[in-house]
Each structure stands twice: as structure tokens, then as C-alpha cells.
Amino acid sequence: MNFLIDMNYEVQIAAELQIKPHQVDATVKLLDEGGTVPFISRYRKEATGELDEVQVAAIRDRVLQLRELAKRKEAVLKSIEEQGKLTPELKDKVNAAETMSKLEDIYLPYKPKRRTKATIAREKGLEPLAELVFEQKSIDLEAEAEKFVDAGKEVNSIEEALQGARDIMAEWINEKAELREKMRKLFLEEGVFSSKVLPGKEQEAIKYKDYFDWSEPIKTAPSHRVLAMRRGEKELFLMLDSVPEEASAICQIEKMILADAANSSVEQVRLAIKDCYRRLLKPSMETEVRLLTKRKADEEAIKVFTENLKQLLLGAPLGEKSVMAIDPGFRTGCKLVCLGPQGQFLHYEAIFPHEANRRSQEAAMNVKGLVEKYAIEAIAIGNGTAGREAEAFVKGLGLPKSVIITMVNESGASIYSASDVAREEFPDLDLTVRGAVSIGRRLMDPLAELVKIDPKSIGVGQYQHDVDQNALKNALDDTVMSAVNGVGVEVNTASKQLLTYVSGLGPTLAQNIVEFRNENGPFKSRSQLKKVPRLGDKAFEQAAGFLRISKAKHPLDSSAVHPERYALVEQMAKDVNASVSDLMSSEELRNRISLKNYVSETVGLPTLQDILEELAKPGRDPRESFEVFAFEESVNSMADLKVGMKLPGVVTNITAFGAFVDVGVHQDGLVHLSHLADRFVKDPNEIVSVNQKVQVTVMEVDIPRKRIGLSMKSDPFAERGRDSKSRSAEKRPIAKKTQRQESEGSMADKLAALRGKFSG
User: Fold this and answer.
1) Alpha carbon 739 to chain centroid, angstroms
2) What sections of the protein cross the membrane (predicted)?
């Protein structure tokens, strides 16, 4: 992919991102040379001026946008030139267009058209009449129109002649770039989303009840409501409009087009304006605005998804321990597997702890025996159906206190178990057994296991199936790659799927590494990676720093220090009369190093500081330490919940309007944005993260609708009366009904905010 851009683009991007042009220039060159976002941000800090991953990715995305705009400009100029209508002024206008919509407005009068009303009127010879009327001078309108009445040309009356002239004028008005820009702004600033239920669909569309008679300003409509209304429309339950008041729109057009006079020509133009708006401008602008708002809503939804996914991927790992995993169930029993410290499959059987005494006792004996036989250090229990019951059963067995018993979110485990990846890993195992293996491995290392599953199946998204799928995939790929490379990968134990996301590798090289490892045994050094088929110097440069070899001969092979800096570290060690290993183990030796002595044209203080930090904690895992979590033992179903209860819970999903929390009853509860903290919260990510352990208070239990309302406020009932009054008094001048207070938007993360600048 070619990332080269001209200097004007560099200046433009630098201004948009509030960085220096030379930073953009350096980053683009590195991208063009095949550099990945993680590699550039981690190992090329001097070149980019210490740009982080978000900024590097924003430059990459903006460059691609501008290249697409440039390609479209070339096509537009070529088309106009072929028509013989390209003037120097028009060429300058095209080249100056900053967005695709402005470019298309300029091109519209020259764009090849299908046969329109205006085309037909021109074929009847009515364009001179349209030109005369459009001057809006005082003329004998009927007499002038009479000149164009000719049965041979199918103009049979004065009114037909005037109608044709109005059709032509309507097209002229529609093609005025300045007017279209004003209309676009009006639709965005004053437009209103209005949704109504389709007659007769009230019962079938009950899940969209909030939108049966709903309206709110386009500019403040939050992404989740935009996507909900669009989904309702797509499923043929709702009618959705997104327009401003017609009178306001027509008034603005009249101000730009109508002459300050009162005559019959002006009235004809006035009629043409109304026709233009209703037949041409309104449908066109509504389509554009819906695309723009959809893009914005997509960005917000994708932002929610990627933030949740990142937090889930970076969940605390238990580490290399012998694990028993249980995929719970009632009728078909619980699928139990035992895994070795590296996640290797050791044993499988089905147990039936929830049946009659004999089978329950048999299950208890089997679990105890397996814990002892395989020296089990932790038991992972899926949080699906029968999960709490299975947890209670295991906890009641009197196992050694050293054995960790914990629930694991099993979302997507069934997707994995039926996937090609699972079949490749365990061709001889049943689907349900593979699912249990996935549950156990998730406890050991969430990142290594979750990369095997399509992120959309993990259950942390918001309308993920409604958004632009290419944009979603790109964002999720960025997120997974950032997480994988941020943690680092042990090359001798990593799966093909995990290696795929390492900077510079991809599916083919990941497969080649696994095959080389299987044929030749564990890698003994990073340099040995160069022997892997098709893994050339560039791929090695991009990947090496993110790959770890824990028992390598060279101590730096287990660290994040890049091989290109080994000589530098060896020189540091030599200067303090020590080995590299001594330098890594001794803080006193590291304190004797003066970094300024090692600054060169290619290595600056940022890289030197990174190296010194890495020497202190080589190959450190940036993820938090694992902590055991347990639900309230007396609460196992929604029927056990009572308003006012205070319970421990785990955040499972974050949306623009709040966070969903698992309290152990097989139905997540919602902590609305207004109940996340004692203070005002605009973005839920300010307060919570996926997998975070929280304390919540039960506010509402609606068993028929399977809804649980929760609060994280210190005293959620203290101001309930005042809050309800303030909510009822909340100024929503257009919104007609709402069942709960919702966020009017959430603070986008850095990249989403930057991308937002480029919309349009």
C-alpha cells in the first residue's frame, strides 16, 4: 500500500492533528516502507517525535482518505475535460475541494445524468425560456411562453411551457454548490429524526416501543438511538425521517435565489424553488445526512466495541498453572477437562452433579480425584446455564484452599468450538469438549485464547452487526494487534492465531513459524527466526522486538529490547565492567549508566529510556495481576434479587449509555450512565472497564422483561425523588417520550475524535 503524499497533505494533516509536518513526513515514510503502527510507535520514536499508536494510526487513516480524494479529483477533472468544459477556474475549484461532498457538489452540473424532467424540457427547446424567466425581470410572461407553444415539439400550452422552464430552473438551483453546502449545514443543524411505527406492526415491533412516536434533533441524537431507529426501519417496523422544517429550508433557498422584486417571473422561480427542494434537494440532502449520521454513529459504536475488546483482551491472566475447566449444563451434564500449565489437553469426562444422589456423588469423587491426579491449581467454571450451580457444587467439595475456584465469561466459546481453528487444534474432540478447553485457557491467558475467536462473537459490542463491517474489522484488527504487541508473545508456545497479530507477520509467516518450530524444536534465539521460510529482514525487523524467547542464550531475547540495539546494550554493560545479565539484575549498575553518552543520530533519549526501563523488568507483562472473584453465594437467579441489595459484580460490556454488570444470575444488569458515580459522568469508560470488579446496588428487578437496574452510587436512593423531578424537567424541546435518562453522547477516544474531524 502506497502511503506517499505531497507536502501540502503533510501540512494539512499536521494542522488537523496538531503535530509538526516533519512528524507526519517521517511517519508516512515509515508506513510506506512497510512499518506497522506498533513498530513505528515503539521503536521509531526519534523519527516520529514520539508519536503514540493513536497518532500513527490517525496519520495512516488520514493519508488513505486523502489519497482516495485525490483519485476522485483526477477522475472528475478527466470527465469534465472530456466534455470540453474544463476551465482554469474550475480546475482550481476541483483541486481546492477539501472533502468528497464538496467535490461532488462542484462536479454535479457536469456529471452524466439519466433522463430527467429538465432533460425532457431541454429536448422541447424550453431552455431559452428558462434563462429568460430566471433573470427575474418584469416581462409579459404569457406572451414569452406563447412563443414556445408548438404541438410539433410537444409543447401544447403556455402552462406546459412554464412547467418545463421550472423543471430546468429547479435543476439549476439543485446544482449550485454554495446552496447545497448551506442545505447540508441546515439539515445537520436543524434537522430532526422522526420515527413512527408502521400501522399494524405495534405488537410485532414491541422491542422498538420507545420509537413508536419519537423525534429528536439530528445533531444531538446519540449513536445507539440512531442505530436503533435505523435497525427498526430496516426490519420494516418503523418509518424514519431526517429533515428540518420545510419552511425554514425553502426560506434559505429563496434568500439565495429570489430577486428583491415582485413580478410574474419571480413567482415562477419561487415555484421552481419549492419543486427543487421537494423533488431534488430534500431527498439528496436526507440521503447525505443519513449517511453522515450513520458514519458518526458507526464511529461511536466501533469506539465502544474496540475499547471494550481491548479491556477484555488485556484481562489479568492466571498464568501457567494446571487448570480444570468446566462447561456447565443440566440435562447433558457438565463437560470437564484438565489442562497442563501450557494449556495442553490432558483429560476429559462428563459429570452430572445436578442429578440424583448417585451421579452427584460420583461427580464429586471424580472431581476430587482429578484435582489430585493432575495437581490442579485452579478451576474455571463457565458462567452460562448451570454455572452458579456448578460453582456451588465445586465449592462444596472441600477442596484444598490453595485451589482457586472462579467463574469465567464463556461468551464466544461455542463459536470457537465449531471453528476451523478448534478443529485444527482438536480434530478428535467433540464441540462441547473444545468449548471447555477454551474456558480453561481463557483463565490462563485471555489474550492468547480470545484472538482465536471472531471479536464480534465475544459479546462486548454495541450494534456491531449494524455498523460498516469493513470499518469495524479494521478497527478490531488494530485493537487486537495493539494488545498482542503491547503484551509481547512467547514464540515457542504461541498459537498460529496469536502470532498472526504480531507486527510484520500475518497468517502465512505465523504458520511458517509454527511449522518450523514443530520440525526443529523450540527457538533458541531471535536470530534463528531468520531461518523461517519467507521471513525476511523486513519482517524480522518489524516482529523481533515483540517476540520473546524465555530460555534463550542471549538474555535480551526474552525482553522487549530490539535486536538492533543489542550492541548498544552490550556497550553499556562493558562501560560499567559487567555482563548484560548483570546489568539486568542490578539496579546499582543501571544507575551508573549516563544515557546522554549513548545519544547518536539514530538513537535518542526516548529509545534509551525505554531500553533502561526494559532492562529493569525484562519481558514484563503490562497486564494486571489476577485476583480471585466470587459472586454472592445466596444469589443465583433473578428471583433471588431484592431492591436495595448490595452485590459484587463484574463489568461485562460498556455502552454509550452505561455498563452491563454480571451479578451471577444469568442476566446482566444495567448500571445506567446516571448511576455510575456520585458525580456527572459523560463517558462510562471514565469510571469502569470490562472485567472490572464492582459493587452494585439493585434498583429494579423486572423478571418478565428480564431487566435488572443497578447503581454504583454510594447512596443511590438518597436523591431518587429529586432526580426524578430533575429528569422530568429536563429540557428536551423536541423529544416526545423517553423511559429513562440516556446520555446525549459519549466522549470518543482519541482516534475516534481524530477521525471525526475528517468526516464529510
Assistant:
1) 27
2) none
CA 668, CA 63: separation in Å to the nearest integer? 41
Handedness of CA 688, 691, 695, 696 (dihedral sign): positive
**Dihedral of alpha carbons 69, 70, 74, 77, sign:** positive
Q: Which three cell numbers stand for residue 117?
A: 424532467
CB contact set of 221 (below 8 Å; sequence gap of 6+):
193, 293
Asked if 291 and 347 count as a contact pair (C-beta separation under 8 A), the reply is: no
Cell of 696: 452494585
Name the nearest CA neighbour of 611 among 556, 552, 680. 556
Say how far apart CA 272 and CA 172 lie, in whole Å.
Answer: 10
Name the pLDDT band for 731 (thresholds 50, 70, 90): very low
Cβ atoms < 10 Å from Cβ of 57:
23
Higher pLDDT, 60 or 625: 60
Find the helix or strand (DSSP H, E) in which 297 lies.
helix 282-313
Count CB-CB contacts under 10 A for residue 620: 13
Distance CA 721, CA 729 (A): 12
pLDDT of residue 377 exceeding 80, the answer is yes
pLDDT tens, residue by residue, 120-161:
999 999 999 999 999 999 999 999 999 999 866 688 999 999
CA atoms within 13 A on the CB side of 681: 24
Share of the chain above pLDDT 70, in %: 93
Nearest to 723 by CA among 733, 708, 713: 713
- Residue 714 or residue 753, greater confidence: 714
Distance separating alpha carbons of residues 323 and 426, to the nearest angstrom? 18
pTM of the model: 0.80
> What is the per-residue pLDDT for 151?
65
C-alpha to C-alpha distance for 309 and 301, rounded to whole angstroms: 12
Q: Which of 292, 287, 288, 279 is nearest to 174 (CA)?
A: 279
The pLDDT-based confidence of 725 (bands split at 50, 70, 90) is very low
Domains and CATH numbers, the chain: 7-110 (1.10.10.650), 119-308 (1.10.3500.10), 323-444 (3.30.420.140), 638-718 (2.40.50.140)
Q: In this predicted structure, what is the pLDDT of residue 464? A: 75
* Three-state SS letters, 309-348: HHHHHCCCCCCCCCEEEEECCCCCCEEEEEECCCCCEEEE
CA–CA distances in Å: residue 109 to residues 12, 79, 113, 169, 373: 28, 12, 9, 13, 80
Rounded to 10 degrees, what is the CA torsion of 200, 202, 205, 210? 140
